[in-house]
Amino acid sequence: MNIKISERAMNIKPTPTLTISSLAKEMLSNGINVVNFGVGEPDFNTPDYIKEEAKKAIDDNFTKYTKSAGINELRAAISLKLKRDNNLTCNPNDILVSPGAKASIVFILMAICDPGDEVLIPIPYWVSYPSQVVIAGAEPVIVPTKRENDFKITTAQLEKKITSRSKVLILNSPNNPTGTVYSKNELEKIGEFCLKHNILIISDEIYEKLIYDNEKHISIASVSEEILEITVLINGVSKAYAMTGWRLGYSAGPTEVIRRASIIQSHTTSCVNSMTQKATVVALSEGDGNVEKMRKEFEQRRNFLIETLNNLENIECMKPKGAFYAFPDVSYYLKNNKNGIKNSAELCEFLLKYFHVALVPGSAFGNDDYVRFSYANGMDSIKTGLERFEEGLKACLK
């Protein structure tokens, strides 16, 4: 039998970050010492008080299906968190708990997009956004930004890309891969633009706890009541609480959008596993200082990484204000190398193959002149990886 794969599936490529990470892990398993700057996963362990709550849930036999949208206790905890941290008043019934923020975004897109609808995505973007839009049956519209504006989207840039089919804007602050953080004034302008053009905002705020230099995370939904009504906030516990493998994200937004997304989820993943939901209640409600300890460690790593990168010849890198990524410009080495390297993907392949340092090509984020570092690594690994990176850059010019 000749099985024909759908056009939708054929149009979706593997996620580059997980592909790079898998290749690096395969090399490690074969005895090759690879420094992996590829995956956005904290190297810290999940705090003990969170793990203990999950163990207790198992011991208490809290191991059955839950309601699709999430247990009431957790949605109430998320509602309190949104009020405490983001100055947002959100009814727990307007919150959907999903198996990771990726799933949260997909279910929201499926709830609001029809075939032919357009979703605006600023460059550089998180690698999965365009594919998630395609999965939902809509069309991704890529919106260029400028480096001199820290890659932040402006209303003028959005104006050039909107059409009568524009339905959604995906906004990510703090941003992956640049670490850019939007100010309240910038968010107000974007929000007013979306109000004017009847565009719903999906605000991905997964890195909100990882902010540096006394910057403050502001949710676009908190700017005004009117903007709140057109915003779906996306968040989760993977990054701030070192819970990547637990798989829990959530969305909060307009009642009917959340209700429809919850119905879609009920027919796909059913619910998030019950133990993770219980553990997340204490993650959001209690604390032992681990989140702040991790944030401070990331800030120290960032400072070292950015200073070292900017001291390398023909490398420029803006200083990220949030998340745990650096996005240096490597265009000089793409234009002047002697190894036939034509793009960022080939440069990353060269560096991994010959110098055993794993990076994600900028093309995965929509900008081929760059590569992405994750500094969710120990300082010793970062130092070793940077030495290899410098050696590799010099070698590609010979």
Strand order of the largest sheet: 2-8-7-6-5-3-4
Low-confidence stretches: none
Q: Which fold name corresponds to the CATH topology of the largest domain?
A: Aspartate Aminotransferase, domain 2
In the CATH scheme, the class of the largest domain would be: Alpha Beta
Assign the CATH superfamily of the largest domain: Type I PLP-dependent aspartate aminotransferase-like (Major domain)
Described by the principal axes of the CA atoms, the overall outline is globular
Instruction: Just name the CATH architecture of the largest domain.
Output: 3-Layer(aba) Sandwich
Number of helices: 15
SSE arrangement, N to C: HHEHHEHEHEHEHEHEEHHHEHHEEEH
User: How many extended strands?
Assistant: 12
- Structural class by secondary-structure content: alpha/beta
Largest sheet: 7 strands, mixed
Our count of domains comes out at: 2
Query: Mean pLDDT across all residues, rounded?
Result: 96
Helix content: 40-55%
Distance between the termini: 51 Å
Strand content: 5-15%
Radius of gyration: 21 Å
Can you walk me through this structure?
The chain has 398 residues and is α/β, with parallel strands linked by helices. The chain has 2 domains: 7-45 and 290-396, Aspartate Aminotransferase, domain 1 (Alpha-Beta Complex); 50-285, Aspartate Aminotransferase, domain 2, CATH 3.40.640.10. The chain contains 15 helices and 12 strands. The strands form 3 sheets. Strands 2-8-7-6-5-3-4 form a 7-stranded mixed sheet, sandwiched between helices. Helix 8 (184-196) links the parallel strand 5 and strand 6. Helix 5 (101-112) packs across helix 10. It is globular. It starts with 6 loop residues before the first helix and ends with a helix.
